[in-house]
């Protein structure tokens, strides 16, 4: 019985740790609500409070945004920069009160 417990307890602890890690993964909605990230006029997110998790989230989201912006620019035969600026305006307009935006002069709480 003791042998089984010695093997089972470490396995259970390891499994619990692995499952809890995904539960604590940062998502965009949570990061915005907690004031960790904000929208910018460039059409991309930026960290308000930079931590490794926040920086990873921002990099992932911005890479996906850029890919989408490039498709839109190509489809509409316009520049990437024009799409980025339009997306930035729209994102800032849609940002709810209490979340952060950066209009080029530092972070503001909307």
Structure description:
Strands 2-1-3-4 form a four-stranded mixed sheet. A hairpin with a 4-residue loop joins β1 and β2. The model is unreliable at 14-23 (pLDDT under 50). α3 (52-76) packs across α4. The protein has helices at residues 2-23, 28-33, 52-76, 80-94, and strands spanning 37-40, 45-47, 100-102, 107-109. The protein has one domain. It is α+β, with helices and mostly antiparallel strands. The chain is built from four helices and four strands, in the order ααββααββ. The longest helix has 25 residues, at 52-76. The protein starts with a helix and ends with a strand.
Task: Please name the defining characteristics of this protein.
single chain, 4 strands, 110 residues, 12% strand, alpha+beta, globular
Give the secondary structure arrangement, pairings included.
Layout: H1 2-23, H2 28-33, E1 37-40, E2 45-47, H3 52-76, H4 80-94, E3 100-102, E4 107-109
Summarize the structure.
The chain is of the alpha+beta class and 110 residues long.
Q: Give the biggest sheet.
A: 4 strands, mixed
**Would you count the extended β strands for me?**
4
Query: Into which percentage range does the β-strand content fall?
Result: 5-15%
Show unreliable segments.
Answer: 14-23
Bulk shape:
globular
Distance between the termini: 60 Å
**What's the helix count?**
4
Radius of gyration equals 20 Å
Q: Please, how many domains?
A: 1
Strand order of the largest sheet: 2-1-3-4
Mean of the pLDDT scores? 86
